[in-house]
Amino acid sequence: MIKQDREHNLLAKYLIVFGTRPEAVKFAPVISEIRKYSDEMETVVCVTAQHREMLDDVLNVFGIKTDYDLNIMQPKQTLVDLTCRALRGLEEIMVRERPDMLLVQGDTTSAFIASLAAYYHQVPIGHVEAGLRSRDRYHPFPEEMNRHMIDVLSDLHFAPTDQAKSNLLAEGVSDEQIEVTGNTVIDALLMAGNMPYEFDIPELNDLNGPIILVTAHRRENFGSGLRSICQAIDALARYFPDITFVFPVHKNPRVAESVYTILKDKNNVFLIEPLPYLPFIYLMKRSIMILSDSGGIQEEAPSLNKPLLVLRDVTERPEVVEVGAARLVGTNPERIFREAIRILENDDIYLKMAEAKNPFGDGKSAERIVLAVHDWVMKSRGAFGSTANKLPFV
Description:
The chain is an alpha/beta fold.
């Protein structure tokens, strides 16, 4: 039960800002949890729409109603364009809403810019999924530096694992500012797992036999890295003619060009449009193994008991490798090919990876986050009066 604040009966206002599908997925359980306590808490949800189509799908799946939509997505937008438009839009919202706390998630440009806008207006910041580090400022880019800067600005840090907490402590964050909560992506996965679904794409429903899911879209893999990944998939598809490789191809032209040039018209490689959230979860469940450069899939695959090859040179989620659920293989085609064969042709290795315990949570992360946020805000009010009313806005 959320702690009651008897002295102050005003609603605590939490501004939640996100712009991409992964953020929406990971915030859905938090928004749902806050709204259980509508007599004590108010949410103001702002989307930047950094990723428009994929974001809207998740909003619909989880029934998230938005209060503000900056709709900043433009064709061929640069990080500078994105940053400038988002900062200006969020400036106005900070002034109008005067929240008790901003909540951001992860490491997107939207999350960083929202944190910067909050800092400029002295609004406290809570960072969900804090403390992830690859220790390589350009891998992933720009996410590694985004999360560093968000953590520097934040007042509360919700670390998904003990390793993430250790990263924060090593950087000088006070222990009192850190809560180890697990990752809300597991909460969302459990919520979505109870939603019935069948593929809208008939060819997917008609697929028989084993499937391997492939995703690749990281900026740092553009060019030679992505081509190497596709060469590995081509070789694996020829080596395993009875396995279908399903590859939802990101809409970014730099991704699509490499993928279609190498993998188009291969007999057992199925190139499809990016999938909405529910069918993508269903496809992960249907697969026997996943090859991906995604961060979120590193968290989801262990809960679905799917061995994972991480198509990156470094990962900010080393726990998934340490528990044995995934292997970090980079983009070298020979290494990807060799590791995939080793897993698929050795039952002991396969089962060990599939049965590894997920290090990222138990499905109760949102509950822990909301309790900690509200407790912090209520204590701040008790000491200083209403946080929102006391802050000196610029």
